[in-house]
Amino acid sequence: MQVSYTFPSWLLSKAVDLTVAMTYTNEPHLGLKVRDRIPNSDNSIFNLARQGDLPGVSTLFEERRISPNVLNASTGQTPLYLVRFAIEHPHGKDVANFLLDVVKIDPFIVDDAGWTVAHSVSRRVISKSRTDQLGYGSDEIFAKIATDHAEIWGFTHIHNLVVETHHGELESTLLKPHYREQVNETDTYGMTPLYWACVRGDTQKATILLAAGADETIRNWEGQTALHAAAEGGAAACVELLLRRGADVDHKDKNGCTALQTAAYSNDAIEIFDLLVNAGGSVDTEDNYGTTALASAACLDHPRVARWLLERGADIERPDFLGCTPLYEAVRYCSDDVTKILLERGAALDFRIANGRSILHAIAISGTLKCMEIFLDAPLSILDAEWQDNTGSTARDLFKTRLPKPEGMQEAFLRLLDKIQQRKPDEEEEEEEEEEEEEEEDNFFDANE
């Protein structure tokens, strides 16, 4: 037996892992491990892992700037946990393998929300999510973490039949009273067999489960229902099935996300959006952090979803509670395709977020080479290259602190600055003429007075 406890972030700035266990010789064992909880800053391991920046991540460890045991101050997550986002892109697999093979981060560390990396990657594998369809290696990564999906989830026999970790015929099995009683039982994270059928897009099994008495309103630990699961999996047929049964399209999970927001965050499949909107879903609903579906699509670079939302009237400028617009999020998270779409749709550039940063600051610290090339075609004269954020840093200052820069990036960034600082002669003449006219108006007086 083994029991572990990690103190929450509000109690300590360090995580103390206390492990009480019995060895195979029945001797007691007490273990104590202290982990630093550090904030997520520009060049932090968390930000670099989230972006799939292997050169940056490896530099931090090679130069001993960071410990393998650090946790995110606000979430309790390891750097490996953030790679689950980067795996959406080809370069993310390399970062995940580096953190597992070289740094040897423990994938079973439980974060403040009760999740582990092992469960996150396993969920992607058995749900047949977009990651696996694109072949970026979730199966390979999970094989390094664990070997038995059923064991880490605590699946019932019905769960196993649904996710195909056990072989058998679901419909005939449910005719047996003992197994029929399992139809609404949950795994260790509160997910029913119906939830898994929907996230996998398995309409046939979902229909069988519903006929056997499955309850589509049961919520998992995160407050998500089967409709959220179907939305996450981009499963239009399952969404339609659940909506016909009266599923609540406006139900929000613990993070304030509706099924539509979950869909925008999880995949780039637009087929389900018409179904959800026609059922009353809103394209501009915000979660607990002020994030909209468009901003979620921007974070994960889902261009088809972003384009669909914009065509349906989504607010292109809606900021979250930190002042970040969808464009800022797209640049921040290296979502180049969505960045291009937002710029083509006229997304504003002259805004500041809560920490005083401009879009140029975001480009400086997070923008890819492709992102910088995209912005070279934007109306940059509206930006101020010398604008300082709340710490007094300009975009140029932030760029200097950036960890290993890919070949050509410095030249591209300098071209951006040059374009901002260059003023066309005719523009300057027009401004001078306007200033002279204003001065003449100010100096005008009536001779009869």
From TrEMBL:
EC number(s): the record gives 2.3.1.225
Q: Does the keyword Repeat apply?
A: yes
Spell out the Acidic residues composition-biased ranges: 427-449
- Keywords in alphabetical order, please: ANK repeat, Repeat
Region labeled Disordered — which residues?
A: 420-449
Q: Which domain of life is it from?
A: Eukaryota
Pfam families the record matches = Ank (PF00023), Ank_2 (PF12796)
**UniProt ANK repeat ranges:** 189-221, 222-254, 255-288, 289-321, 322-354
The reply on keyword Membrane is: no
This chain's protein is named: protein S-acyltransferase
- Organism field: Knufia peltigerae
